[in-house]
Amino acid sequence: MTMHLAQMNVGHLRAPTDSPELADFMAGLEPINALAESSPGFVWRLKGGDDPQDTVQHDYGDHLLINFSVWESRETLWDFAYRTVHLEFLRRRREWFLRMAEPYTVMWWIPAGYVPTLEEGMERLALLRGEGPTPAAFTFKDFHEAPGPAGDLHDAPEPAGGRR
Amino acid sequence: MVAILQDPVRRAVYEYVAAQGREVGRGEVAEAVGAQRTLAAFHLDRLVEAGLLEAGFRRLTDRTGPGSGRPAKVYRRAAGEWQVSVPARDYRTLALVLAEVVELLGGDERAEEAARRAGTRLAEPGEDLAGLLRRRGYEPYEEEGRLRLRNCPFHVLAGEHPMLVCSMNLALCQGMLEGSGEEGVTARMDPRPGECCVAFF
């Protein structure tokens, strides 16, 4: 079975999205999202709406910005995150986001074609925060390769979302 | 590993292949270093055996089908890295530990400031920036009026702590630019897969 890499990251914004402090960040959303969508290995991202500046709506607290996407491999996600102009965005993260003491980014493998849900993403992040990196929830730094073709998936939790 | 690159022709062969950033054929290398094709091929294959280059086969012309000839052997720099230090020194392990500490302490802004100061000290006023970058191992080359950097001297560290190390590297490059006194140029993030994250515009 072909496996894809799901990644979610959360950030606490320093100010409301319509404030002058966030202007550069909001202006960058459209080109950065367009770049992600046209990058090699991009599969899917959770959109907040039809407007390019719409952010993901959720009930996990005010000022929490959620980024959620699926990629074909570690390498394609890495190249987008750190080897494109997205890196300059990351470099300026302190201007827009509060420093976080706990992990704010999580990855896990999903079967190709499966569309993960936001609830599932938050569960994986909680798992990473609670138990540290495991094959079910990990990071670039403590990476886990995709499970092998046979048998290895039987222990994985039943996915909470639907098929595309 | 040191002995492998001792022969001046072989060293020129290696440096030529490394500087192209793409696959090159035997004929091109021979011409570039001014050696016979068979001698260039010999050195290329020795460099592959030593793990410094990687070889593959590719058609060098657009022609296909019968009569287009068999694919040519092509070479590019191997992805692995080699360090030589006598007596043994291990700065990498300590650098990785220190990078982790900076991240745990949330000290990345201070690290960038320190990198900028260090960069300033690396450059002599009036010094040629490209020459300085070449000596520091960045392998600069020009493209569309920009000075780009083919090699990341901090590759392993950048792989473990990309945000910290790439931000520090940008600050280091800004410091070198400042120290050299070169004007009308800025160092900016402009990463590409397989290259350094900084370019000079």
What does this structure look like?
Chain A: This is DUF3291 domain-containing protein. Chain A: Pfam families: DUF3291. The complex is a heterodimer of chains A (164) and B (201). Chain A is of the alpha+beta class. Chain A has a single domain, classed as Alpha-Beta Plaits (2-Layer Sandwich). Chain A is 29% helix and 18% strand. Chain A has five helices and four strands. In chain A, strands 2-3-1-4 form a four-stranded antiparallel sheet. In chain B, α5 packs parallel to α8. The relative contact order of chain B is 0.12. Chain B contains eight helices and seven strands. Chain B has 201 residues and is of the alpha+beta class. Chain B starts with 7 loop residues before the first helix and ends with a strand. Chain B is globular and about 60 Å long. Chain B folds into two domains: 75 residues, Orthogonal Bundle (Arc Repressor Mutant, subunit A), CATH 1.10.10; 110 residues, no CATH class. The longest helix of chain B has 19 residues. Helix content of chain B is 48%, strand content 14%. In chain B, the strands form two sheets. Chain B has a four-stranded antiparallel sheet. The interface between A and B is medium-sized, with 15 and 17 residues.
List the helices and strands and how they pair.
The complex is a heterodimer of chains A (164) and B (201).
Chain A lengths: L2 E10 L10 H15 L4 E4 L18 E8 L2 H9 L3 H6 L1 H4 L8 E7 L6 H14 L33
Antiparallel strand pairs in A: 1-3, 1-4, 2-3
Chain B lengths: L7 H13 L3 E2 H8 L3 H13 L3 E6 L13 E6 L13 H15 L2 H15 L6 H7 L4 E4 L2 E4 L5 H6 L1 H19 L6 E3 L8 E3 L1
Antiparallel strand pairs in B: 1-3, 2-3, 4-5, 5-7, 6-7
Protein name (chain A): DUF3291 domain-containing protein
Strand content of chain A: 15-25%
> How many domains make up the coordinates of chain A?
1
Number of domains of chain B: 2
Helix content of chain B: 40-55%
CATH topology-level fold name of chain A: Alpha-Beta Plaits
Order of helices and strands of chain A: EHEEHHHEH
Class of chain A, according to the CATH hierarchy?
A: Alpha Beta
Rg for CA atoms of chain B: 20 Å
Helix content percent band of chain A: 25-40%
- Chain pair forming the biggest interface: A-B, 15 and 17 residues
Q: Would you identify the regions of chain A where 5 or more consecutive residues have pLDDT less than 50?
A: 151-164
Oligomer: heterodimer
Order of helices and strands of chain B: HEHHEEHHHEEHHEE
| Average pLDDT score of chain B | 92
Say how many strands of chain B there are. 7
Q: How many E-type strands of chain A? A: 4
Q: Describe the global form of chain B.
A: globular
Largest sheet: spatial strand order of chain A: 2-3-1-4
Protein name (chain A): DUF3291 domain-containing protein
InterPro entries (chain A): Dimeric_a/b-barrel (IPR011008), DUF3291 (IPR021708)
